[in-house]
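Sample entry (83 residues):
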Amino acid sequence: MARCHLKGIDQKMMEDYLRHHLTIAGTDRMLFDETAVTAIHQGSGGLFRKANHLARGGIIAAARSESTSVTAEHVRLANTEIF
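Predicted structure, serialized as tokens:
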């Protein structure tokens, strides 16, 4: 069995990554506030796959609460439901 350890990206790169995916999705508005970006970065360890799950879950949690932006609390909610 082969193992590989991926080093996560830093928080600024995570913000850029999230912004890029929002642009691809068709919005130029940053849906994640600063606390949400931090929560996604910390919760994912800077790894893209985990960040994608947390970001998607955060968007769903924000939509359920009829919020116009994703906060750290939305990401924490997503983290408890996903992992």
